[in-house]
Design brief:
Layout (H helix, E strand, L loop, with lengths): L6 E4 L5 H13 L3 E4 L21 H11 L4 E3 L6 H4 L10 E3 L6 H6 L8 E3 L6 H16 L2 H9 L15 E5 L3 H12 L3 E5 L15 E2 L6 H6 L4 E4 L13 H6 L4 E5 L8 H10 L2 E6 L19 E3 L10 H17 L17
Parallel strand pairs: 1-2, 1-3, 3-4, 4-5, 6-7, 6-9, 7-8, 9-10, 10-11, 11-12
Helix pairs in contact: 1-11, 5-7
Amino acid sequence: MSQKPENVFVGTYFEPDEIERLRQEVTKRGLNLIYHGEWLSPATFPAEHNHNLNLTPEQWAVWLADLKQADIMFDFENNTLSRWVPENLTPRLRWLQATSAGVGQTIDKAGLGETDLIVTTASGVHSQPLAEFVLLGLLMWIKQYPLVARQQQEKVWRKYATDELPGKTLAIIGPGKIGRRAAELARAFGMHVLAGPSSLEGRTPADYNADELFNVEKPALLETLARTDALVLAMPHTAETDRMIGKAEFDALKPGAYFINIARGKVVDEEALIEALRSGHLSGAALDVFDTEPLPPSSPLWEMPNVVVVPHSASTVYAENSRIIDLFLENLDLFLAGQTAKMRNVLDKKRLY
């Protein structure tokens, strides 16, 4: 390391108890913490990040001046990256820790792809809550919750029968940390799990808590979808995955299949999804992400009784910030020891994940 790190700049809001804990831990390691909490919008719910930062010209000048003294940056607000990089990027800044797993596109668009800046993501922090959301969707589907809700609202007492998860086939595209945990939970309910990683080379089903692997390239993907009862998307949004799932893929699924998206909205052709839901070919969907966020009031998805619309919040739990700080501190110790190759979740700036 060319010079001993001195300053950690925190560019996003943390609750007072969390920022105090972070300050104490950073100080114990001989570093200074720079945090302009008074300028950051307080979270409207626990662990909220990615606000837009609204500073006066004078405040912005101080923000940039302090950032130029930083060796390490801990996250950023939505509208700040494009304003301070690459023009204001100094060689002193060596490492950026994000609070999100899917920051590849943001980092690339900010012009950081060709720099030496180490970027680490929050991959794995959200695995449990997102896997639980997958399970929620599967149980709502198999137990016909839309029917339950409708009959309760209409005060109708009409008995019915439902199906079961054991023996159903679940396909997961993008079985990373989130997908592997979702696979584990689904198999605990007796589902047959198919995992579709970006590459099959040297991989086994056990690597992904799955029963089988499948190729995500056509036509193999369509052949797999033809025997799929429920499809989960958990891959990153890259040039390769942009609009990866569209009309052909939805048509290939079994009639009455269920769809869950915890990836990014832009990996799906949303119009094709809406059509598949309207036609009944898809029996329903649980969606945490959308092509446009916030989801416009004009979207038909809002009014579909067989669709669960979540405002990109399925990953957010009360313990999130504590876990992210734990991850940061683990990486901080490795960074200070010069063991950057061992840091967790280093972003591949070519693959963007």
